[in-house]
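Batch job 17 of 40 flagged for manual review because the log was empty.
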Amino acid sequence: MSKKGKGRKLVSLCAVGIALFMMFSLVPSFIPPADATFSSVTITEVTPTELHPGDTKEVTVTVKNNGGMDARDIRLAFQGTETVSLIGPTVVHINTLNSWCSKEVEITVHVKEEAPNGVYPILVACSWRGYYFNSTKGYVATDTIEAQSGISFNVIGKGVINIGDVTTDPTDIRPGDKDVEIRAFIENSGEAAAKDVEAKLVCNEEFKPSWSGTDRSYIGRLNSGEKGEAIFHIDIADNVESNTYSIPLQIRYKDTKGGEYEVMRSVEILVEPKPEFEVVSFYTEPANISAGDEGVKLHVRIRNVGSEEAESVSVRITGEADVPFDYDVKSDYLGNLKIGAEGVGILKFDVDKDAVRKEYPQGIEIRCSGDRDLGDDNVYVFDKQIQLEVTSSSSGRFSVHGFEALFALFALFVAFILLLRRKSF
């Protein structure tokens, strides 16, 4: 072959090669790039992630395909736990999730009551099929792909202790009342359980424990929404004023993990008005009492120092052992005494002839009714005491009388002698 013929053949081959190259370069390549050869379904975001014990909330879960290949027939199976579980369907289906795209799905999550604080995971079993275009087969789905994913929730809760209803026995508390029972309901209005709950009344001089330990009450465990009754017994001071009082209440408890807490609350009680008496003064007629005296009058002056009017006030002598007084008049009626008013009771007695010279304690009982206009129908009794002194005994009394008789005889004898002497002159 001539050189000219070889040249033409080479040019023809080059032309065919160029044509083939141009033809194949215009045909799309169906070999996917590296990042487009797979699909990857995963959960990228959860809102909200902070829950509280007892919550039932709608949770938004963002599902994303992080691969270059589309995904179809996506199935998400949420595996709840005893503490954090799903309400309603536990499986979510998504038909298609294109490459690099995401979709939000809704689930309903419930947190168990009294769930301890902590982070709680929920496993999610994911399955799907990849989906791509094949030049000869068209769109083709891969075999099912399975993977494990998960979400987690931070459970935060605590017990909140408050005071509920408070009752007392008696219902109407008066100054001087003893062994008053106070019942207070301790409520857990928080989101978590509280255990070893113990309440202590912080008493003072006006409100004291009736006996040892009655200012404390152990309740134990209180789950969320529960309440327990604390019982106390206190004595009310005699001189406490009529008013509403707030007695501090110290409450200590633990959470379910053993953490210790202390809160201060208070118990409100109303002290109703009440009459109260004091002995202002007393004296006897005669002022000096001797053994054998008869018809001695005892004057006792009293004053209403309470917070309400006293009705039907009376003064009465109480029987005392080893007191040498025999009362003919043991009581006296004084009528009604307003706040600050005074009254005098007059009593009458004889002194035993063999009474020893000394002071004797004499009991005085003051009895009255409450102010019925204020709804006080109580009968009050107040025990007071005074000291009565016998100034001379029976032996001393007879010696004085004997001396007086002897002195009188001596005076008569002297007068008789003087009279005789005058006659002799």
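Reviewer: the log was empty due to a logging misconfiguration, but the result itself is present. Confidence is low (pLDDT under 50) at residues 18-35, 395-403. Unflagging and moving on to job 18.
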